[in-house]
């Protein structure tokens, strides 16, 4: 397995395709219903965790208002000689305060994880995303496996079994996303760098 510098991993993750381009047969992001508010914007972002020190995540909402892209510049998981336990597993709790038109609510339809992986045979990566809304009971979880042997860009998709909607009655909602990734076993050199795409569905209250 050829070595790769950590400096280049973030750019490789950001440049990775956002559709299913790794031959794994995974579906792309689910198509939303088509009903969207005229305006959606991010009021605030809060980051907490070993995978996203302050100032290391970029959040963008696309023109259709149905896709949120989160790029982590320091969400890099490593194993092998010279690494420590803190390198083998990373997590990030991302809190987004979104503002939108009165009379709408939204849910997460699907999650795409894309980036760059360098995983030898016999090792595997696993990422789990959990979403919830402040003030609403219930959570939506996705798990994505990344088995070895592989080296290069990847895109993996997952859809929830249960959909959780933001509360009605206001023009803002706080969405919490907790992403955890690990590589096992830890004795062989392996790397993962990550970008997360979140597909949203909107409906009228």
UniProtKB/TrEMBL annotation:
Keywords tagged on the record: Signal
Signal peptide: 1-15
Domain of life: Eukaryota
The keyword Signal appears for this protein: yes
Ligase among keywords: no
InterPro entries on file: DUF4360
PANTHER family on file: PSEUDOURIDINE SYNTHASE RSUA_RLUA-LIKE DOMAIN-CONTAINING PROTEIN (PTHR38847:SF1), PTHR38847
Protein name as it appears in the record: Secreted protein
């Amino acid at each position: 397995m050829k070595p790769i510098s950590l400096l280049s991993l973030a750019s490789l993750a950001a440049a990775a395709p956002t559709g299913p381009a790794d031959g794994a047969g995974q579906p792309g992001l689910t198509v939303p219903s088509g009903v969207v508010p005229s305006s959606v914007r991010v009021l605030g972002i809060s980051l907490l965790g070993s995978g996203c020190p302050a100032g290391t995540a970029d959040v963008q909402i696309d023109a259709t208002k149905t896709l949120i892209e989160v790029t982590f510049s320091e969400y890099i998981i490593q194993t092998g000689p010279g690494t420590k336990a803190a390198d083998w597993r990373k997590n990030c709790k991302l809190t987004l305060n979104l503002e939108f038109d009165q009379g709408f609510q939204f849910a997460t339809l699907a999650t795409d994880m894309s980036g760059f992986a360098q995983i030898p045979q016999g090792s595997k990566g696993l990422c789990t995303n959990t979403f919830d809304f402040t003030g609403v009971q219930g959570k939506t979880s996705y798990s994505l496996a990344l088995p070895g042997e592989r080296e290069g860009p990847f895109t993996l998709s997952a859809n929830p079994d249960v959909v959780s909607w933001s509360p009605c009655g206001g023009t803002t909602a706080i969405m919490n996303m907790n992403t955890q990734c690990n590589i096992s076993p830890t004795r062989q050199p392996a790397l993962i760098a990550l970008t997360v795409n979140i597909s949203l569905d909107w409906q009228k209250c």
